[in-house]
UniProtKB/TrEMBL annotation:
Keyword field: Membrane, Transmembrane, Transmembrane helix
Protein name: DUF6785 domain-containing protein
Family annotation (InterPro entries): DUF6785
Organism: Candidatus Desantisbacteria bacterium CG_4_10_14_0_8_um_filter_48_22
Membrane-crossing segments per the record: 12-31, 43-64, 76-99
Domain annotation DUF6785: ranges: 10-159
Source superkingdom: Bacteria
Family annotation (Pfam families): DUF6785
Amino acid sequence: MEEKGWFGLTWRALLIGSACVIFLSIAAPFADLVLVGTWIAGAHLPIGALFVFLVMVVGINPLLKVMKVGLSKSELLLVYCMMLVGAGIPVTGFTEYLIPTIASHQYYGTPANKWITTFSANIPSWLTLSDKEAIRQLYEGLPNGASLNFIQLMKAIPWGV
């Protein structure tokens, strides 16, 4: 099958790769921060990317080849490389730093270090968390059966980006 594009750089490979990166960008922080399970993206070999790639190569692509629309080797390589690069950004490169940072000055602030007054004067209120209990639970954990106030957290995250 002759492919169009430059070294597997086709629109469908870019779309499939982008969809896989978006999936891993959601699944990896969930697995790391909520499930507190295996790091599926923040390791030397991101097993999340490897798993998605193996499902694609062993399960999905053979079915596509039967329909004469299977991905070529170079397209599969492009999708895998996109997942390798994109998988680590939402965990170790971004999410694990952003979420604690938007509340750290309030949690670690004391009268001695004056973080609350110093940083609060320079950080707009919409860029940080305001609920003291949500901040405490973010750092210390939740009581059994309780759930984190995601609404407070989601208000600050888009602006922190």
